[in-house]
Levansucrase
Amino acid sequence: MSKDSPGTAVPGHGARSGWSREQASRIERTDDTTAPIVYPPATDQAPDVHVWDTWLLRERDGTVATVDGYRVTFSLTAPADLLPGKRHDVATIRYFYSADGRTWQPGGVVFEEPLGQRTWAGSALYDDGDIYLFYTAAGERGADELTYTQRIVAASGGTPRTDGEFAIEGPWTHHELLRPDGDRYERQDQSRGMTYTFRDPWFFEDPATGETHLLFEANTPVPAASDACGGDPDLQSFNGSVGLAHSPTGDPLSWELCDPLLDSVCVNQELERPHVVPRDGRYYLFVSSHDHTFAPGLDGYDALYGFVADSLRGDYVPLNDSGLVVTNPANAPFQAYSWMVFPHREEVLVQSFFNYYDFEADSMDRVADLPESEQLRRFGGTLAPTLRLRVEGTHTEILGTLDHWQIPLPDEVLPPTDREYFAGESGDGGSYYSSH
């Protein structure tokens, strides 16, 4: 693994690819990577709930599924009157459906009794008329106190009903799929410093091999005596990785752990919601990460980061030299998060949720200093405008935006884009991109 300094190899199983400190040191806002300012939508499509991490129902080949004319999204949600900072402890998966990709109807809670104390993000597969919902089970159901153990699980048995209106019906059966092994992937008892991660399962069928995989967020175990990061224990705790599991039979409920696709030891602690978009014979790997999860000496942003390789297992190189693909403007640094990339015709589109607006600070921790009414007002709690992205080789460029919640229909031709700059310099929040 290359980490740009001697003695950074980590014992045991290792990723073929690494995000190095030298690469991450080149992270910088540019016109091509800075999203326009986001404002609240004219109409909130889910006013009764906070909506954040969201994923699309997809076919095995990764295309967005259309079920009898409907597209379906799944989201982490919480009551809209709850303080935004408390939402993760009560997160519930709800689904929404749309016939036109613009107006979405609430379908309700997917299931009432998931595994774990809390439910976090995942992915959804539509396979031969059945729905498989992969998600993260956080904590142990029945425990007296809130715990942070994380397992990758799946629910099977969901079937769509489309007689008159769309609905997803059970009964659902929940299956524990994977736990960290302590060798390739860090267990909670091995973690030090920051949080540990074993979550965000994402189903992927490799178009080149036909093999079936799960990607997930994890951490690389770094023993205390390791010389990784030059032996610096502070840097060693920044050990995020993109994990991989394989299903030998293609069964969505049977998995074996594999070596990680990529790690960021000495660079970043959390590589959230990893997913791959095959394009032009190459594999584009995307993750979301926060500014505060970068190791000391590195300045990153709340942003979408990306890497590209000629095969699923790598070797991966960072897009745009640093890995930065999409970030928020400097004067709205936390306006969007949890990006998910999906192909549409000649472009790729990027979905995210509308996080905090009218909020310029050096840390999201400052939200807690606001009056409760202001915390609620400044939290978007809905989907952000969909971004349009050009991806060519190792370079990406934001082309423009669509509406909040807009997921175009499969054959929908998008209008030409112009990048119109009305004020300010790159990254200052003065850029406005429009689609015509």
